[in-house]
Amino acid sequence: MPVPVTVIGGYLGAGKTTLVNHLLRAADGLRLAVLVNDFGALPIDRDLIVGGDGDDGGDTLEISGGCICCSYGSDLMEALLELPRRRPGIDRVLIETSGVALPGMVASAVGLLEAYALDGIVVLADAETVRRQAADAYIGDTITRQLAAADLVILNRCDLVGAMARDETVRWVAGKAPNGRVVPAERCAVPAELVLGLHGGAGGRESNVLRTPGGVAASVLYESLELTLDRAVDVGQMARALTAPGSGVLRAKGCLRDESGRLVILQVVGRRAEITAAPAGATPGTLVVIGLRGQLDRAGVGGAAYLSS
Fold first, then answer.
1. CA 117 from chain center: how many Å?
2. CATH number for the segment(s) 208-308
3. Which sequence spans correspond to the domains of the chain?
4. Predicted confidence (pLDDT) per residue in 209-253, tens digit
5. CA-to-CA dists, residue 132 to 7, 84, 90, 117, 170, angstroms
6. Structural fold of domain 3-196
7. pLDDT of 179-196, one tens digit each?
8. CA 240, CA 229: separation in Å to the nearest integer?
């Protein structure tokens, strides 16, 4: 099975490194490989580092939990090709792009390698500065192209603006990210499930079913819908319903039986849907859908599940 890759982009200072550290703390047994453009200012919180040569000019840091951080410099493709040899058994790759990079182009490069599969593009934006940056004659094109490529936009630092300004910025960003969903956040504190769609557990391997975000804070901001689909379904129709503009779906994942009787994995991130063959031993019948509280169209999603089965 190809290794899933999440590309994390956004302009300088938007919070990419904060998000990466948050995801490493929430890895829950999964072995993550974080690829960064360079170590420069150390990208990983020191209490997560257990060894490596990053401080001495090398290109590798050992992270707690079996994770690794590598610097790819100017050759991302070579770093990805070398990764299986350097660290066999990696479960997922996070690529943190530079602040001026275009994550859509990075994602296109990943698509050229058979060993990897793009899971999604996550772009960080600063709620306080993103509109001003987008209007800048020098960097505005970069900002808008970063947003346009996003499957999920994490609108960070919402605590620095008022509620009215936040809501206006959410609407503005949604217009700039036509294929994505916008998630307001403070200090990049979003459930890892929204970014990675993963579930740890025994053996540290990914599950075929998405985990519902836990914790008090998550339950206030997000809601989930767990659907039992024990009959064959029109998976394509289900995917279209989950990615429709008004569905409010941020993430969805489940193992389903399609109309031909084949077991497949349906994954949705933002408005991107992917249907792949289920791995051996997968158990069908459960689809977990996550959205912002009050914005998830529970009736519409549930109705689509009923109509597609």
1. 13
2. 3.30.1220.10
3. 3-196, 208-308
4. 445 455 445 567 788 888 888 889 999 999 999 999 899 999 998
5. 24, 41, 39, 34, 14
6. Rossmann fold (3.40.50)
7. 899 999 999 989 888 888
8. 17
